Amino acid sequence: MKKREQQTTTRTADSFTLTRREALKSGLGLTAAAGAVGLAGGYLPGPLASSVYAQGSDQPIRIGFQVHRTGIGAVYGRWYERTSAAAAKYINSIGGIAGRPIEIVPEDDGTDPKRGAEVVEKLAVQHKVDFIYGPLFSHVVIGSAPRAGELKIPYFVVSEGYHVASGKLNRYVFQPGITDVRAQITSISSWVMDNLGKKVTMFFPDYAFGYDHRDYFSAEVVKKGGSIGELLAIPPTESSYTRYFPRIPADTEVLYHVMVGPGVLTFVKEMGEHFGSRRPQIFGFIDSLEGVDIATPGLDFLEGTHFWEAFPRYASNTDTRYSKAFREAVGVNASGASKQDPKDVATYSHMFGVWETLFVIKDAVEQSGYRSKKDYPALIETLEGFEWFNEGMAHPQGGKKFVGALHQCYGRQHISRVTGGKLDVVHTTAIEDGMYDAEGDYTKQSL
Amino acid sequence: MSAGRLRRILVLHLAIVGALFAVQFFLPDYHHTNVARILVLATFAIGYNLLFGYTGLMSLGHAMFFAAGMYACGLCIYYFNVGAPGGFALGVVAGGTLAAVFGLVALRTSGVSFLIVTMMFGQACYLTLLYFNEITLGDQGFTLSSNLDALHRAGAGLAYSDPDVKYNAAWLVFTGAFLVSALIAASPIGRVLIAVRGNEERTRLLGYNTFAYKWLALCLSGAIAGAAGAAYAVLFSYVGASFASILYSIYPLLWTLLGGAGTTLGPLLGTGIMFYLIDITSGWTNAYLFVVGGSLLALVLWFPQGVMGAVRARWARWLP
Questions:
Q1: Three-state DSSP class for B131?
Q2: What confidence tens digit (pLDDT) does each residue in A387-440 have?
C-alpha cells in the first residue's frame, strides 16, 4: 500500500509541495515560491499567480462544469460553483494542470436528467471540453451518465449517491471527491448504536435517497445486534408530519431522520411539539439542513441532537491548516456561511467534493501524461490505479482511499452534536469504517 | 378536400421528412444529436396536438402516456431483455392502452373538468411510479446502456449509441407519427375532430358519436406519446420518474402552442424553437426561463395561433 501511495499521489500527508513534473514545467523559481506559500497555508498573490503557469503553458485544460444553477438543486449548485471557481483560481495560482491553465466551462442542467444529458452533449461536443464534472442530484447523474459513456468522455460526479459504486453506470464515470451514502451510513452506524441506543425508528423521504438510508442503516443495525422499531417513509408531497409521530414505538431509543427539502423546518417543529422535553436520542443527516442556519427559530428542538457531517460546518480549534485554507478560499466564515452574506449558509458537507475532484483530475492528467482526448484510455487506467489521496490542500476534508474498480473514494465522516445552536464534532470515523463489499468492477468494461 | 390540395399536402409532408433525412449528412455533431432529440420530443408533441390541437381537449396529464411508453419499454428491456424493437412495440401498446382505459373515465368530463382530471391522473401515475420504487427504481431511474444489444441488420451490428442509428431511428419514429397525423388531419376523421373542437353539440346534432371520436383521438394521442417515450428510453438510455412529472405534461402543451396548435407542422417547429431557445439563452443568463416565458407572452399577444397557425392564416390556408 505504501509503495502504491507514493506512486499514485502527488502530495504527502503533512505538506503541500509541487511535484517534480510541475516544477520542471512551471519554472523552478516560481514553483518554489508557490510551494513556500502553500506550506504556509496561504495563497499566491494575484500577479505572481498569473505568471506561474505561463512559462510552461499550452492550450488551457477545459473542464466542463455541469451545474445545478436552477431547479431543486440550485442551493447546492450555487455553492458548487463558488467552490469550483475558488479551486480553479487556486490551481491556476500553483501552475495549472501539467503547466496548462485550467478553464471551467459551466452549463446549467436545471437539476433535470433530460437537460443533464443534453448538457453533457453540449459540453463534450460543442464546447469540446476535456472532462466534465460537477452534478450532485442522483437522477441527473443517472440520466446523464449514459451519454458521457457513449461520448467516451471522463465524467466526474460529486453526488454522494451509491450509483457509481454500485457498478451500474459505466467506465467513464468516476466519483473520486466525495464518499457515497452507503459508506457514510456504514461508517456512523457503530457509533450511533454504541452511544445513542440500539432500538431505532427511522424517518426518511419516500424516494430513492431515503431508501438508501432505510436499507443500509437498518441492515447495519440488525447486523450489530440492534432492532428497527418502525420505518416511516414520508411522501415528498407531505407538508405536516403529526400523523407519523404516534407511530414511533414507545421504547425507541434513537430516532434517525433524513428529511430533505423545505419541510424539514415543519418536521422539527412538530417533532418538538410531539415529544416535548422527553425525547429519545435523535440522529440526523446534515443533508436535511444543508444551506440552513442551525440557529433558525423553530430548530431549537435540535439542541443536544446529533448529525452526520462530511466536513464540519463550524470552525474549531482542531481544524487542520488545509481545512482553514479551504474555508478561506471558498469565502465561508467560521459559522459555515458566506463571508459576504452571513445568512447565505453553505452546503459545507458536499461542496468540498468539487474542490477535491478538480485536484484528482489534476493528478490524473499529470500522472497519465494526458495531452488530448486520444489519451483518455491512459488517463482512465491511471485513475483506476490510484489507491490513496493524502490529506493536504488537494484534499482538505481528509485523506481518502480510492477503489479503482468501483471508481469511488472512501473517507472519514464526522458526527456532530448541536450545542448552543452550533455543531460540535464529537466523533470522527476511520476510513475503514465505511468500507463494504464491492458489487461491481468497472475495469472489466471496455474503453 | 380537393385533389390539388391533397397533392400539395402530400408533397409538403414528404418533402419535410425527406429534408429531415437529408439534413443529417450536413449537420455538425452537436446539432446532429440535438435534432434526433427534437424529433423524438416532437413526436410526443404530435400526439398531444392530435388531442389538443385538432380535437380541442386540453390535457395536463400527457406525461403519463409518455411515461407509460418509456417504462413499458424500459422495464421489459431491463428485466426481461426483450430487445429494443420489442420494447418499442410494447411502449406504443402501453401508451395506447392506458389512453383507452383512461379515456373511458376522463372523457365523461369536458373543458376545465377534463383538464383537472387529466392532471390528477397524471400525478397519480407519477406517484405510482415512485410508490413501486423497488420495481421502477423511482425518482433515480435506471439506465439501459448495458441491457441493449446492437440491432443486427444486413449482417451489421448497429449500436444505439451510434449517432447515425440514433438519428435515423428518431427520424423513423417521427416520420411515422408525422404522416399519421397528417393523414388524420386531411381525412374525414380529422374534419370531424375539428368539428368537435369547434362545437361538440352541433357535431352531435349532425349524427356523429362525438364520444367515440374523442376516444379515438385520445387513443392515438396516447399511443404516439407512448412511442415517443419508448424511443427516448432506447435512444437516450435513461428511464426515470421525472418524465412522468407535471413538467412533462406542460412541455408538449407549450411546444404545440408555440408551433401552432391544430397544424401538422406546429409540434416540430415548436419543439425545435423551444429546445434551441433554452439551449442558447441558458448560455447567456441564469434567468433563461424568463426569456422563454417572455417569448411565450409575446407569442400569445401577437401570434395567438402559434407560428404555423399564423402562417396558415396569412399565407397558406391550405395547410392542414
A1: helix
A2: 999 999 999 999 999 999 999 999 999 999 999 989 999 999 999 999 998 888
Lookup result for grid cell 451518465: A145
Domain assignment of residue A229, yes or no: yes
Interface contact flag, A208 B238, Cβ < 8 Å: no
For the segment A348-371, what is each residue's pLDDT rounded down to a tens digit? 999 999 999 999 999 999 999 999
Which of B126, B127, B133, B139 has the highest number of chain A CBs within 10 A, making it the mutation to test binding with A? Answer: B139
**Could you tell me if A263 and A239 are in contact, meaning their C-beta atoms sit under 8 angstroms apart?**
yes
DSSP A316-364: -TT--HHHHHHHHHTTB-TTSBBSS-TTSB--HHHHHHHHHHHHHHHHH
Q: Is residue A442 part of a domain?
A: no
Same domain, yes or no: A100 and A214? no
Q: Which residues of A touch B247 (CB under 8 A)?
A: 112
Give B189-223 pLDDT, tens digit per residue. Answer: 999 999 999 999 999 999 999 999 999 999 999 99
> Does residue A160 share a domain with residue A60?
yes
Q: Which of B125 and B9 is assigned the larger pLDDT? A: B125
Question: Are A14 and A141 part of one and the same domain?
Answer: yes
pLDDT at A239 (0 to 100)? 84
Cα angle value B108/B113/B115 (rounded, 5°): 105
Task: Write out the CATH class of domain B3-314.
Answer: mainly alpha
Lowest mean pLDDT among A61-70, A235-244, B197-206: A235-244
Determine the Cα–Cα distance for residues A148 and A66; give it in Å rounded to an integer.
12
Domain presence at residue A427: no
Greater confidence (B258 vs B300) lies with B258
The predicted structure's pLDDT at residue B138: 84
pLDDT of residue B4: 81
Q: For residue A72, which residues of chain B lie inside 8 Å, CB to CB?
A: none
pLDDT of residue B258: 93
- ipTM entry: 0.87
Report the share of chain A in percent with pLDDT over 70: 87
Interchain contact, A126 vs B142, CB within 8 Å: no
β-pair partners for A338: A332
Residue B30: is it exposed, middle or buried by C-beta count within 10 angstroms (0-12/13-18/19+)?
Answer: middle
Locate the chain A residue with the closest alpha carbon to B243: A114
Same domain, A283 and A359: no
pTM: 0.86
Question: A350 near A310, Cβ under 8 Å?
Answer: yes
Same structural domain, A394 and A292: no
Q: Do A52 and A139 share a structural domain?
A: yes
* Domain region containing A141: 2-179+319-411
Counting residues of chain A whose pLDDT is more than 90, the rounded percentage is 70
Q: Mutating which of B130, B140, B160, B236 best tests the A interface, going by the most A Cβ atoms within 10 A?
A: B140
Give the CATH number of the domain where residue A139 resides.
3.40.50.2300
Rounded to whole angstroms, the Cα distance separating B320 from A212 reads: 52
Q: Coil, strand, or helix at residue A240?
A: coil
- Are both A123 and A12 inside the same structural domain? yes
Overall domain count for chain A: 2
Tell which of A283, A309, A335 closes a domain: A309
**Residue A384 region, left (φ>0) first, then alpha (ψ -120 to 50), else beta?**
alpha
Question: Which A-chain residues 164-193 have CB contacts (< 8 A) with chain B?
Answer: 168-170
Whether residue A420 lies inside any domain: the answer is no
Amino acid at residue number A189 = S
d(CA B55, CA B191): 10
Indicate whether A171 and A190 sit together in one domain: no
B-chain residues within 8 Å CB-CB of A373? none
Average pLDDT, chain A: 86
Any chain B CB within 8 A of the CB of A149? yes
